[in-house]
Specification:
The protein has about 210 residues and is α/β, with parallel strands linked by helices. The chain has two domains: about 90 residues, Vaccinia Virus protein VP39 (Rossmann fold); about 110 residues, Rossmann fold (3-Layer(aba) Sandwich). The protein has seven helices and eight strands. It has an eight-stranded mixed sheet, with helices on both faces. Helix 5 links the parallel strand 5 and strand 6.
Length: about 210
């Protein structure tokens, strides 16, 4: 779905202290002022999920990544510079490794990413093995990836990619909202669920024998 550019987005980004800019030295301890664990959302959309997570878990640090500034600006506006455990990175997810040369993240959230329907585009899916290899480099040992989607072919593809690349799967469900699993929703998730669509969900664990 195409999102219209907001006239205020550029100013919102320019005036926010939550944006990681090109001069950032990757010192997350100094940025957040603590050594709390870092959770990473890849593709944050309008920012509902990451903002609610930061509010719900003040003892953790949250970083959201989104390629388009006019989209991430909505998440920044929602935060209103008031959350001290939240940061936003405007960059392509394929570049995420450069932000964590030393610091490791304690979990990754991938929520309702682009399914890239056409077969020739499968390598662009965020759960394709090449992306999993990147995530492996920035995750702590035993750290999970939490994955949610409304797209069944993408979910099946994702389960196979995790399994084929020696990630341990757990809490697999084909209808998340009918489980007792703890869950913070996204904008898309609420839209899909209200329309009666099931939400597919799984966790994948980076095991010690899957490390470089």
């Amino acid at each position: 779905m195409r999102i219209r550019k907001k006239k205020w987005a550029e100013n919102e980004i320019a005036n926010s202290n939550l944006i990681i800019n090109e001069n950032f030295n990757n010192d997350w301890k100094n940025y957040f002022g603590n050594e709390n664990k870092i959770c990473l959302e890849l593709g944050c959309g309008k920012g509902k999920f990451i903002n609610e997570m930061a509010q719900k878990f003040p003892g953790k640090n949250f970083i959201a990544v989104e390629k388009y500034f006019h989209i991430i600006a909505m998440g920044v506006r929602r935060a209103n510079n008031s959350l001290k455990n939240l940061a936003f990175i405007i960059d392509d997810i394929s570049h995420i490794e450069k932000y964590f040369p030393k610091t490791k993240v304690s979990c990754i959230y991938i929520n309702f990413c682009d399914p890239w329907h056409k077969k020739r585009h499968y390598k662009r899916r965020l759960t394709y093995k090449d992306f999993l290899d990147v995530y492996k480099k920035i995750l702590m040992p035993g750290a999970p990836i939490y994955f949610k989607t409304d797209n069944l072919p993408l979910f099946e593809f994702t389960l196979n990619q995790f399994s084929d690349n020696n990630w341990k799967l757990k809490n697999i469900t084909f209808d998340l909202h009918k489980t007792n699993l703890d869950n913070v929703t996204t904008e898309y998730e609420e839209k899909f669920s209200n329309a009666g669509m099931p939400i597919y969900y799984c966790q994948a664990i980076l095991s010690n024998d899957n490390l470089n």
